[in-house]
Specification:
2 copies of one chain form a homodimer. Chain A is α+β, with helices and mostly antiparallel strands and 245 residues long. Chain A has 5 helices and 10 strands, in the order βαββαβββαβββααβ. In chain A, strands 1, 2, 3, 4, 5, 6, 7, 8, 9 and 10 form a 10-stranded mixed beta sheet that branches.
């Protein structure tokens, strides 16, 4: 039986999604929880890896179990009983054997949260990155438009990422400002390693006059990483949703 | 020279505002920071004590220094250099000797944050209390109206609080719902120990059918604490602002 789960986590205290030798990961704790609930050692496959410190409010994962007395819709509650409170499974359902949380994913939405202030706000800093001073919202939106569509995002490709192709499609980039809070919501068919954090860093550099609209056009043509802005910190990033057909 | 500062803190890791023998408090760290900056051992007086785990986005405090080379408006930055990142001073200014952050306060606004869901959200739990299921917003608003005005709030008076009078004026209670998030914003001329948390617990009990509007009327007449709802957890409470003439 194949189970699809939707979950959220505060990534602050985790070394990201993927099981690794040094440090606790979300995947590892989910696999332990499945074992506690079913007695089976399984691989829990996520829609994608999130980096150390990145949060999720709508990550999706799947796993297969041989036999279990637990109805699929009861898996959320059963797993949560064996997970720390900074990881919560919101829902579970049985899916067709052909479903794969990673390869079946059609669209993902990430949100990058910025806090615009000279002084950090202790109540915001866990889930956002503080930027000193205001931003040029119109200019950021113009820059964002240039990224929308199908492009070769080689400029955002971290060395050694091993991605087969660097062509991705960004469906939309919505930038919303609410007082001192700025949210950049990016929806695409997939993202390269660090791509959203570097894309947002580039929009910020554009707003701050360090990069130009021409630089963005050039980086998409040349794949030149040196034209990009800095990669923003992990804590401002949240995987909001993953969509499937 | 008397300095007034406005500050915020994530109360999660603190034993509240007031200096105490066991555990680290916000007041203690501020006093240490003032010493680091000025070399003077001073008392930092807050607008009021916040309990262990309660947050603040607009706490106000004052202290007096004999002599300092630091202009008042530079105190925020100077103090922040000696404070942990979960406490930030937002601003500082010189005030008249007659100013007292505690006794001069005219109005305080607290916000209690509830998250309405069967399953906790890891990204919300640090600053809110999860309530299973929905609430009856209209009924909560009707209950809130009964608390507004000048009343003897003896029903909310914790034993041994030592308050001289239990008469307080609540100017407004605004309840806002935004998706799963419910914010109860209470403005008054002052609050008894645990008053906002118990008041919100009472509105919740009303919504859940455990208390009636008549119970609220009775508790305000009789001062009967047993008619109140439970005192909600500290982590959902935030001191938002303190106003002075």
């Amino acid at each position: 039986m194949k189970i699809k789960i939707t979950l959220g986590y505060d990534g602050t205290d985790y070394c990201g999604w993927q099981v690794q030798p040094n440090g606790v990961t979300v995947q590892e704790l989910l696999e332990k929880a499945v074992f506690m609930v079913t007695g089976e050692s399984v691989r829990v496959t996520g829609s994608g890896r999130t980096d150390a410190g990145v949060h999720a409010s709508g990550q999706v994962a799947h796993f297969s179990v041989e036999k279990t007395s637990i109805p699929p819709e009861k898996f959320a509650k059963a797993l949560n009983a064996h997970l720390p409170s900074d990881i919560r499974v919101f829902s579970g359902e049985q899916v067709d054997q052909s479903f794969n949380a990673c390869t079946s994913a059609k669209r993902k939405t990430y949100c990058y949260n910025l806090y615009l202030s000279e002084i950090e706000n202790p109540l915001k800093q866990r889930y956002s990155t503080t930027v000193h001073g205001d931003v040029d919202l119109d200019l950021m939106k113009k820059g964002a438009e240039l990224f929308v569509g199908e492009h070769d995002f080689a400029c955002f490709n971290a060395s050694g990422s091993g991605a087969k192709t660097t062509v991705r499609t960004i469906y939309s980039i919505d930038i919303e400002k609410d007082g001192k809070e700025l949210r950049v919501k990016v929806t695409g068919n997939g993202f390269l390693y660090n791509m959203v954090r570097t894309l947002c860093g580039t929009l910020l550099a554009l707003s701050q006059g360090e990069k130009s609209l021409q630089d963005i056009e050039n980086m998409l043509i040349n794949g030149d990483r040196t034209l990009c802005g800095r990669t923003l910190p992990a804590k401002g990033l949240c995987l909001e949703s993953v969509e499937y057909d």
